[in-house]
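Long-time lurker. I teach an intro course on protein structure, and each term I like to show students one example going from raw sequence to a predicted 3D structure in token notation. This year I'd like something fresh instead of my usual example. Would anyone be willing to generate the tokens for the chain below so I can use it in lecture? Attribution to the forum is fine with me.
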Amino acid sequence: MNESEHIEYLGSGVKLIVSESHTFGTDALLLADFTSPKRKDIACDFGTGCGIIPFYWLRENMGRKIYAVEIQKNGFEILKRSVELNGAGEKIIPLNTDLRDLKNADYAGRFDVISMNPPYTPDGAGIKSSSDSAKIARHETICSLGEICLTASRLLKFGGRLCMCLRPERLCELMTAMKNAGIEPKRMRLVSQSVGRAPWLVLLEGKRGRKPGLTVEKELYIEENGSDSEDMRRIIGSYRENGDNGLC
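-- Reply from a regular --
Happy to contribute to a lecture. Here you go:
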């Protein structure tokens, strides 16, 4: 590993290589838990970065086969080394490609569930990040919500799930993109730092080809009484027990 890299110990013997450019935050853990593939599922994580979502699923023994898609070469190389480090090559398949190119490959109708933690800022809005990797991760410079949903629709089985997280102010935009792609929003959960604080994240699940009908789950709080909430303790699991507090 180079000087910008280190290993995060996720618990249950799972190790993840991260770098200054390719790391993860609380939102990725929340999305991984919200998505929770069944053990028999074939799953895919778009824009996987360092691979935190697939490796969270690996820790929890979720999914039969997991495809991890990353367009940036440096992020993909870190991901591949994490797969090798964990001996997970039979379960996690890294793909170095633009997610939009998958629609023309041999993946149509293959997946039970797809997740993505997309860039939160629309292209042309906000202050652009200085590095290319940060710009791609935070701004829609490569693909839009509409393109993500259309690609997912082609790759999902009928009734397959697309799970995403986003800032609440873009919820209407995300729901519209899902519906335009034939994916019906079916389950939603808001995330707040603590009771009385405004939500800073929304988790949304849509199902391909299903009828309308949205279930809103109880709000998830990161903290309760100044410490991790019960939900966060369950999601973090043995990661925090190992003394690792690298969440950002």
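Some talking points for your students: The radius of gyration is 17 Å. The mean pLDDT is 90.
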